Amino acid sequence: MTTTNIHPVSLVGAGPGDPELLTLGALRRLQAADVILTDELADPRVLALANPLARVLNVGKRGGRPSTNQRFIHELMIREACSGAKVVRLKGGDPFVFGRGGEEADALRAEGIEVEVVNGITAGLAAPASIGIPVTDRRCTPGVALVTGHNGESGRTPDWAALARSGLTLVIYMGVARCEAIVAALRDGGMRADMPAAVVASARTPKQRHAIGTLAGLPALLQTDPSLASPAILVIGEVVNLAALVSDLPLQHAAAAG
Ligand code: SAH
């Protein structure tokens, strides 16, 4: 009688783009993988470092009903893991930051499959840093909030008024489409119109773009420059002023520069 050896499934963070930002753990899992389930946010340059014999399955969510697709992803991961394959579930940024990594881990564990999480650098930290913005700085903020700008299926949206009063740096994922409503909600909560704000699109990829302005000016910034479109991070808070202190961006595309 033979028993199939089931390997733990690795939920691996691919970081925001540039493979220089991968962890060693991520690289090792990619090199050892038999099957890689990836989504559209994982950079092709990261996939290029994987085991060349690995099967790469793109399970991006474009054009489908998200809940159906999510179930499909769970079933696929379970099937591959049960067949004895070393499965890597590769996700943009960090798998546990707005990545549905928690839901995927639950689905696997419910089938008795072990899960390991390999952190990645989340876009909400990489994007501000790429233009010299520290998300916390004791001179101007006691902390940072990572929030979604998307009206989730669960209907749980951030309490914008409370965030406006919090004094925290706001790092907003998935906020481009609803930028106008978010700005209005923050203004209603008492945040000043000239609070510094930035948008960083496609951070740490060759398509990176950014713009710096004010809270009230953010919607117009996005409207006038379509290259700032999603995927983009909005950063709101006094720390945005510190971007100006950085004269050049030595880390950016360091790999390309050789
Ligand atoms: N798990 C991911 C986030 C997935 S949610 C992470 O930790 O980074 C998708 C959102 O992430 C996008 O709408 C955008 O707001 C942000 N995002 C992902 N990659 C990005 C990038 N390279 N530059 C800017 N924002 C990015």
SSE succession: EHEHEHEHEHEHEHEEHEH
| Integer average pLDDT | 90
Number of discrete helical segments: 9
Main beta-sheet annotation: 5 strands, parallel
What distance lies between the first and last C-alpha atoms, to the nearest angstrom? 53 Å
Shape: elongated
Q: What is the CATH architecture term of the largest domain?
A: 2-Layer Sandwich
DSSP strand tally: 10
Annotated CATH topology of the largest domain: Methyltransferase, Cobalt-precorrin-4 Transmethylase, Domain 2
Strand % is 15-25%
Radius of gyration (Å): 20 Å
Question: Are any ligands bound, and if so which?
Answer: S-adenosyl-L-homocysteine
Name the CATH homologous superfamily of the largest domain.
Answer: Tetrapyrrole methylase, C-terminal domain
- The first-level CATH class of the largest domain is given as Alpha Beta
By secondary-structure content and strand pairing, the structural class works out as: alpha/beta
Helix content: 25-40%
Low-confidence stretches: 247-258
Strand order of the largest sheet: 3-2-4-1-5
Q: In total, how many domains does the architecture comprise?
A: 2
